């Protein structure tokens, strides 16, 4: 009987160790995420189309859009909508659009 309880105890320690490692991995992933203010000091405004250039976005990053909702909006579109500027009440024509790719 003593041998059986030792095996269970070893398994329990292995499970706890695996849980601790999993939590550490998840926390390190979260710590590596970045927050970006879209447009930087210019905020979400006209001519921000080049804002993403030179930035390397990762899954988990947060993009913050600061804007007055009385005048502007943020709409997710596919590549067709982006290229044709077919958005509901947007300022797409004034290059108030960005394309972001996360790896």
UniProtKB/TrEMBL annotation:
GO molecular function: electron transfer activity
Record Pfam families: Cu_bind_like
Record has Signal as a keyword: yes
Domain Phytocyanin: 34-103
Gene3D superfamilies the record matches: Cupredoxins - blue copper proteins (2.60.40.420)
Keyword Signal: yes
Signal sequence extent: 1-33
Protein name per UniProt: BnaA06g33970D protein
Keywords: Signal
Origin: domain of life: Eukaryota
């Amino acid at each position: 009987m003593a041998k059986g309880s030792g095996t269970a105890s070893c398994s329990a320690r292995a499970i706890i160790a695996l849980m601790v490692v999993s939590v550490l991995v998840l926390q390190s992933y979260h710590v590596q995420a970045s927050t970006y203010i879209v447009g930087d000091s210019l905020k979400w405004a006209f001519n921000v189309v080049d804002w993403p250039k030179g930035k390397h976005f990762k899954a988990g990053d947060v993009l913050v859009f600061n804007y007055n909702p009385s005048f502007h909006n943020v709409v997710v579109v596919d590549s067709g909508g982006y290229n044709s500027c077919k958005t509901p009440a947007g300022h797409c024509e004034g290059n108030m659009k960005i394309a972001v790719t996360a790896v």
